[in-house]
Amino acid sequence: MAAWIRRRQGADALPLTLQRRRLYILPTRAGWGFGMLLLSMLVAGLNYGSSLALFLTFLLGGFALVTMHLCHRNLLGTSLQTAAAPPTFALRAGSLRVTLGNTTPLWRYRIESGVSDEPTVAADVPAEGKQHIDLPVAAPTRGMVRIDRLRLTTAHPFGLFRAWTWVHAPLEMMVYPRPHGSLPMPTVSGRKSGPRSRGHSGADEWRGLRPFRDGDSPRQVDWKAYAREAPLLVKEYSSAGSELRIFDFARLGKLATEARLEQLTRWVVDAEERGERYGLELPDVHIAPDHGADHRHQCLASLALFGLDVGKGAAGGNRSAVGSGGATNVDEIGNGETIGKRRSN
Fold it and tell me: What is the mean pLDDT of each run of 10 residues along the chain (345 residues)?
């Protein structure tokens, strides 16, 4: 049935408004039980010639028909405006943020969203407003996780019927290798001018606060701001005496390939946390030393896609979000730049 629905609807592009042709509705388990009850009441009323029993049966039957209409209307006209899958680390729960819109003066109650056959998350969409929903997405291994379809469904009101639809949009989520390993970070010979301490000495310069990212140390979190109900923020410092580091895949020859990638990921995360300049060397890929959110994503994306055939377009992570109004932060949806420059002989 899923294959038939995909052939019937074809590929979708966001933003998308749900029309009648793509909505499906069937009774729920409670609805089938309610229908059997009405059938029993009808048989009993006809058998005993009870007008009161027949009146109650037809009254409840009309109630069921109105409920079916309201359930279908609750989903009809709802729009899926954006869907963005920020990059995450392997073995951690990823998320897909979808934005549901409503241009009518009626509230949309208990609209449930889910990825494929995963559990759904319910939310109410206000009249002439929109609602953001974060859906869990499994990220078992590094690479690109393709999200084949989204499910939008509702059983409001009364739960006697369930209306649903499938959205087939080209969604992908980049999964970095997990940051793991205990080897010390290498430095470039002759460039070291004093290590930067994690305690932020007086020589360090305050850079500001940035949103918390996966892999950040809890010691860098601004817990005072968080206690004041602010978002989870991380303190950033920079130091003129920070070390220049080159993370070379070839120098970790004693480790397996995945273990090397996990160790390099650990170094990239730690170096960015300290505000240091770092570069990355992979077979056929060279990333010059730098620092910042764009550089961090470029390095982690190269590690995530190392040795994988993901095709064009996925390398920069720019297919992680579709639709208008999506997030533009590079750590949320990636960037469209080429990952590293090919090393010339």
Answer: 81 88 93 96 92 94 96 93 90 89 92 86 92 90 88 93 91 91 72 41 59 75 78 68 77 88 91 86 88 90 84 39 35 36 37
Give just the sign of the alpha carbon dihedral 43, 48, 49, 51.
negative
Residue labelled with tokens 């020859």? 253
Task: Give me 81's structure tokens.
Answer: 């405006």
pTM above 0.90, yes or no: no
CA 249 to each of CA 257, 268, 276, 283: distance values in angstroms, whole numbers, following the listed order: 9, 12, 19, 8
Peptide bond into 15 cis (omega under 30): yes
* Domain locations along the chain: 1-175, 205-308
Interatomic CA distance for residues 113 and 166, integer angstroms: 10
CB half-sphere exposure, 82, CA atoms < 13 A = 19
Confirm if 210 and 330 have CB atoms less than 8 A apart.
no
Residues pairing with 145 in the sheet? 173
